[in-house]
Design a protein that fits this description.
42% helix, single chain, 5-stranded antiparallel sheet, 24% strand
C-alpha cells in the first residue's frame, strides 16, 4: 500500500509538470522567465523522482518478501504489478504475467464473478471487494485465493485502477467445496467439522440445528443455542448489516459475511459465515449457515496492511540481528539489536565488510559454501562464531535470503542472525554429560543393556559382554535373547508382562546362559521406555551376576544350619555318652571275669555294640566341633593322602575301582589335626568307592587296569596355590541328582540302604574343613561323576598348639587284678551309673574310692580327707568340673593330688580357656576304655 501511495505522489508530480508545460507555452515571449521556469521544473522533477526512487527502494524489500500476493490492475483489468509471491503460489513469474488480463488464469465461473467485482470498484459502486477465486497454476492444480481489493485514486479523486492482496486459502475452502460436492455426507461432516454448521428457520430466525463444534468455537452446547434468534449472538453494531445480507439469501443468492459473535464466556470472536437458502419442494424454508473462526486469520490480514514503521519497529525490537548487505558483503543496514548482541552500534558497522566479524576458522564456511548456496536461491542455516566489540567471539546462527531488483537480478542479501551461545553451552554440557554417562556405563561392574520387545539387544556395555562370555558387543547384539540367553524362555515373557502391566518388583531373579552354555544366576532390574502414545520403544535395565553371591549365601546358610545342628548334637552326644560309658565300662569289667561261654558271648556283643554306638557319638561330637578351634600341627597333606590311599587301595581294586594320585611336587603344608584330616580323606574316598562299585565290570576279587572303557576311577589331586592348599577327589561315577545336591551336607541324610550308613559322613567332613578355616565345594553331573574340592590355608609359623593328651593315644597294656599301690580316689560325677562304674572298678583294684555327685559335696568330702587322684566330670549342675578342680587345688588335702577331667562332650574354647592352667594329668573322653583310664590313674 505504501508503494502505491508513492506512485500516486509521482503521478501527481507529473500532472503538475503538465500544467507547467501550458504555462511555458503562454510565456514563450519572455525568455528569462522561461529559463527560470524550466530550471524550477527540472529541479522539482528530479526531486520527485528521487523521492519515488527512495520510497520504492525502502518498501520493495518488504513487499517482495511477503508470502501474500500484492497486485495492481489498471482500468482494463490487466496486471500492472505483482510481487514475487505470485510465482510461489501459481508457478508463473510476475514478469510474464504483468500486462495479462487479471482473470485469464482464473476458473471460468470465478473469472466472471471477479470481473464484475473489480468493475464495481472501478465504477465506484464498491469501496472494498472480498472474494474467493480459483486460480489455475502452472503445475495444473487449482489454488483458492482470497481477494481483497480497493480502488486506486489519482490526485483528482478519479479511479485509475485496483490494488489489493491475494491470500492462499486453499485449505480453508476445501471443506466448503467438499460440502457442496457430497451432500449425502452433510450431517457426518457437520458433526465432525471444526466449523459451525447451523440451520435457521426462515420465519423467526431461530436455530433449528447447530453442529457440536459450537461448543469448541463459542463455548455453547448445541442444546443451549437451539431455539434462540441468531442475531442475539451478534455484536449490536453488526446486526443491521447482517440482516440486509440475509435478505439476499431469500432471493436464492448465497452470501458471505464476517461479524463479531459473543462467546458464552462474554468474549468476542470474529466469524466468517456463508449462508445459502434451504428449499423444500421449491420453497425456501430457512438458511444453511457455515461459520468459522477467522480471528487469527483476520489479525494476520490486518498485519499485512501495517505501515513501514511497524515493520521497522519489529526489526528494531527483536533480539535477532537483521542485516541488509550488498552482494560484495558491504553492510547497508543493521538493526538496533546489534548493539545488545555484539556491542557494536549499527552506525559503527554500516559500510563495512560483514565478513570482518567472522572468526577466521569459520570464514571459509560462511563466505564459501553458504554464500554460494544463497546465490542459488537457497536459504541455508549456518552456525558460526561472530566477533564482539570486546574482542570475544560468540556462537550465532544465520538465515540468509537473496533479494532481487525489479528486473529480477540479484542485488542484495537479507540475513537474520541469532545468538546461540547459551544453546552451544547447553549442547556442550549435554555432550560432556553423555560422555560421562557413557564412560560410567562402560566402566560399570554391572551389565547394562537396551533391548527390543522382539528379543534383540540394541546396546550393551562391556560388563554385559564379559558377564555373558562373548568376545565383542557386536557378537552379543546378534543373539536371539529369548532362545539363546534364557534357559527358560517363559522367564523373559513373565518379566515383560510384569513391566507392561505396570506392577512389577524392583528386581527379577532369572537364569541366563553364557556363550559356553554355563548357567548363571542373574538379578535384573528393568523398565520400559515408551513413546508419547504409551507404546514400548525398548526395554533397558541393569543385570548383576549373582551366581557367586548365591553360592556364598548358600555356604553361609549351610554353616548356620550346621551350627544350629551342632549345638543340638553336642547336647545329644553328651547325654548318650554317659549311659554308653556305663554300658561299655561294665561290659569291660565283666569281660575280665570268668563267665560262661554263652554269657561272655552276650557281654562281648554288648561291648561291641556299645563301641559302635560310641563311634556314632564320636562322629556327632566331631560334627559338633566344626566351629571349635582344635589342636594344630604342621602336617603335609600329601602324606595323609598317600597313607589313606594306600590303606584303601586293596579294598578299592578288589571292587574294580582304580585310584590315581596326582600330588603336588612340593610338600603341601597345612596347620591341622592329622587325625581329623585322615577322617576327611577316608570319608570322601569311601563315598567315591561305594558310588563306583555298581559300575564295576571285573567283579569282586578281580583286578582292573587303567585304559579300559569307562573304568571306575578315583583321581586325587593336590596343589599349592599361594596361601592355600587344594585337595580334589574326583570320580567318574553316577553323579548326584540336582534334587539331592542341596541336602548332601545335612546330618542323618543318606541315599544308602538302611544299615549301610549313618548319614553323618559328609556332615563331619564339612564340619572338620570349616573348623580348619577351609572351604569345600562339589561339582557333579548325573552320569559323568562328582568332584569334591577342598581348600585349606597353608601352614604359618606360630599357628599350632601343643599336643594334648588323649586316652585314645595311650597304648593298652595287660593289667593285674590288684594295683601295686592302693590309692585314695575321689570320683565326682552327676551320673550315678558312672560313679557306680568307677567305684566298682577301682575298688576291685584295691583302691579306696569315695563318690561325690556334685561339686559342693566333693568340697565337703575333701575338707575331711586327702586324696591321691581326683576324677571329675566336666559338665555338672551348679558348679562345673573346672571350678570344682580349681577349688579342690586350694585345699591342703588335695595339694599333691593328680586331677583327671572327664567329658562326654566337646570342649568349647571358653571351657578350654577355663581349664588352662589347672595342670591336669589328663583329659579323658567318655565312654571310657577302662584299661586306658586305669593306666592314667595308677601310673604316677
Amino acid at each position: 500500500m505504501l508503494l502505491i501511495a508513492e506512485r500516486t505522489r509521482s503521478r501527481t508530480a507529473t500532472e503538475e509538470i503538465g500544467q507547467r508545460d501550458v504555462t511555458v507555452e503562454k510565456l514563450t515571449g519572455d525568455a528569462s522567465a522561461l529559463r527560470s521556469i524550466l530550471q524550477d521544473y527540472i529541479q522539482q522533477r528530479e526531486a520527485s523522482e528521487e523521492v519515488l526512487r527512495r520510497g520504492e527502494e525502502r518498501y520493495r524489500a518488504l513487499v517482495d518478501n511477503l508470502t501474500t500476493v500484492v497486485f495492481q490492475v489498471d482500468r482494463d483489468l490487466r496486471w500492472t504489478f505483482l510481487n514475487p509471491a505470485w510465482e510461489t503460489v501459481t508457478g508463473r513469474s510476475p514478469a510474464e504475467s504483468v500486462s495479462q488480463l487479471a482473470t485469464a488464469s482464473m476458473v471460468e465461473d470465478d473469472a466472471v464473478e471477479c470481473d464484475g467485482v473489480l468493475r464495481a470498484l472501478l465504477e465506484g459502486r464498491q469501496s472494498l471487494a472480498e472474494q474467493v477465486v480459483r486460480v489455475r497454476c502452472v503445475a495444473g492444480n487449482v489454488h483458492w485465493l482470497e481477494l481483497r481489493a480497493i480502488p486506486m485514486l489519482d490526485r483528482a479523486g478519479d479511479v485509475v485502477g485496483v490494488s489489493g492482496t491475494l491470500s492462499d486459502v486453499t485449505s480453508r475452502v476445501s471443506v466448503e467445496v467438499e460440502l457442496r460436492r457430497q451432500q449425502t455426507l452433510y450431517r457426518l461432516i457437520a458433526e465432525n467439522s471444526s466449523d459451525i454448521i447451523a440451520l435457521v428457520s426462515l420465519h423467526g430466525g431461530r436455530f433449528t440445528y447447530v453442529s457440536p463444534s459450537t461448543a469448541h468455537v463459542l463455548g455453547y452446547a448445541p442444546e443451549e443455542v437451539l431455539g434462540i434468534e441468531w442475531w442475539t449472538l451478534l455484536e449490536p453494531g453488526d446486526r443491521a448489516r447482517i440482516a440486509n445480507s440475509v435478505q439476499t439469501v431469500s432471493k436464492r443468492q448465497p452470501v458471505t459475511e464476517t461479524a463479531r459473535v459473543r462467546r458464552k464466556d462474554g468474549t468476542w470472536v470474529w466469524l466468517e459465515a456463508r449462508a445459502d437458502a434451504v428449499e423444500e419442494d421449491g420453497t425456501i424454508v430457512g438458511y444453511r449457515v457455515t461459520a468459522r473462526d477467522i480471528s487469527e486469520h483476520r489479525a494476520a490480514g490486518l498485519a499485512l496492511t501495517e505501515s513501514e514503521a511497524k515493520y521497522r519497529l519489529l526489526a528494531e525490537s527483536i533480539d535477532d540481528i537483521v542485516c541488509l548487505q550488498d552482494l560484495d558483503g558491504t553492510a547497508l543496514y543493521y538493526s538496533a539489536s546489534t548493539e545488545k548482541a555484539l556491542g557494536f552500534t549499527p552506525s559503527e558497522l554500516l559500510g563495512k565488510d560483514v565478513f570482518a566479524l567472522t572468526h577466521p576458522d569459520d570464514l571459509a564456511k560462511l563466505a564459501g559454501d553458504a554464500y554460494l548456496a544463497v546465490l542459488r536461491g537457497e536459504t541455508p542455516l549456518v552456525e558460526w562464531r561472530c566477533l564482539r566489540k570486546d574482542g570475544s567471539y560468540i556462537w550465532v546462527e544465520t538465515h540468509t535470503a537473496l533479494l532481487r531488483n525489479d528486473s529480477g537480478v540479484p542485488d542484495r542479501l537479507l540475513s537474520v542472525t541469532r545468538d546461540i551461545e547459551a544453546r552451544k553451552h547447553a549442547q556442550e554440557a549435554l555432550r560432556q554429560s553423555e560422555e560421562r554417562t557413557r564412560a560410567l556405563i562402560d566402566r560399570a561392574a554391572y551389565g547394562i543393556f537396551r533391548s527390543t520387545r522382539a528379543g534383540r539387544f540394541l546396546d550393551v556395555n562391556p560388563a554385559m559382554v564379559t558377564m555373558l562370555g562373548y568376545e565383542s558387543a557386536e557378537a552379543l547384539m546378534a543373539v536371539d535373547i529369548a532362545r539363546e540367553l534364557y534357559f527358560e524362555p517363559h522367564e523373559r515373557e513373565s518379566w515383560i508382562m510384569a513391566i507392561d502391566s505396570g506392577a512389577h518388583p524392583e528386581w527379577f531373579d532369572l537364569t541366563w546362559r553364557r556363550r559356553d552354555g554355563k548357567p548363571i544366576a542373574v538379578r535384573l532390574s528393568a523398565r520400559a521406555a515408551r513413546d508419547t502414545y504409551g507404546d514400548v520403544l525398548w526395554y533397558e535395565g541393569i543385570a548383576e551376576n549373582v551366581t557367586e553371591r548365591l553360592r556364598r549365601e548358600a555356604v553361609v546358610r549351610r554353616a548356620e544350619r550346621m551350627s544350629s545342628l551342632g549345638h543340638t548334637l553336642a547336647g545329644v552326644a553328651h547325654e548318650l555318652n554317659n549311659p554308653l560309658a556305663a554300658i561299655s565300662g561294665f561290659a569291660q569289667i565283666l569281660l575280665k571275669t570268668n563267665l560262661p561261654k554263652e554269657d561272655r558271648s552276650a557281654i562281648e556283643t554288648v561291648h561291641r555294640e556299645a563301641k559302635r554306638a560310641a563311634k556314632i557319638v564320636k562322629d556327632l561330637l566331631t560334627f559338633a566341633r566344626r566351629q571349635e578351634s582344635t589342636e594344630r600341627h604342621r602336617v603335609d597333606l600329601n602324606g595323609i593322602v598317600r597313607y589313606i590311599a594306600d590303606t584303601q587301595r586293596y579294598a578299592m581294586e578288589t571292587h574294580g575301582v582304580l585310584c590315581e594320585l596326582v600330588l603336588s611336587d612340593e610338600p603341601a603344608w597345612v596347620a591341622a589335626d592329622p587325625t581329623q584330616l585322615e577322617q576327611v580323606m577316608l570319608n570322601l574316598l569311601v563315598n567315591a568307592r561305594q558310588a563306583l562299585e555298581a559300575m564295576t565290570t571285573a567283579g569282586t576279587g578281580a583286578r582292573v587296569t587303567s585304559g579300559s572303557a569307562r573304568t571306575p576311577m578315583v583321581v586325587i589331586r593336590t596343589a599349592v596355590r599361594g596361601t592355600a592348599v587344594s585337595l580334589e577327589i574326583s570320580d567318574n561315577g553316577p553323579g548326584i541328582a540336582a534334587a539331592e545336591l542341596p541336602r548332601i551336607w545335612d546330618p542323618f541324610w543318606t541315599t544308602k540302604e538302611e544299615g549301610e550308613g549313618t548319614g553323618l559322613g559328609l556332615s563331619v567332613v564339612h564340619g572338620i574343613v570349616t573348623q580348619h578355616g577351609g572351604t569345600i565345594d562339589v561339582e557333579t553331573r548325573v552320569g559323568s561323576g562328582t568332584t569334591f574340592t577342598i581348600a585349606l590355608p597353608t601352614f604359618e609359623h606360630g599357628t599350632v598348639d601343643d599336643e594334648r593328651v588323649s586316652v585314645d593315644s595311650l597304648i593298652s597294656l595287660p593289667t593285674s587284678a590288684q594295683a601295686e599301690r592302693p590309692l585314695d580316689i575321689l570320683v565326682i560325677d552327676d551320673e550315678e551309673v558312672i560313679v557306680g562304674l568307677l567305684v566298682r572298678y577301682f575298688s576291685s583294684r584295691g583302691h579306696a574310692v569315695v563318690p561325690a555327685h556334685e561339686g559342693r559335696q566333693a568340697l565337703r568330702v575333701a575338707q575331711r580327707s586327702s586324696f591321691d587322684v581326683v576324677i571329675c566330670d566336666l559338665r555338672m549342675p551348679g558348679m562345673d568340673g573346672a571350678e570344682v578342680i580349681r577349688r579342690l587345688k586350694e585345699l591342703p588335702s588335695c595339694a599333691t593330688a593328680r586331677f583327671i577331667l572327664s567329658t562326654g562332650d566337646t570342649a568349647t574354647p571358653a571351657v578350654r580357656e577355663r581349664i588352662e592352667g589347672l595342670a591336669l594329668a589328663a583329659v579323658v573322653d567318655k565312654p571310657y576304655e577302662v584299661e586306658a583310664l586305669r593306666r592314667i590313674v595308677e601310673d604316677a
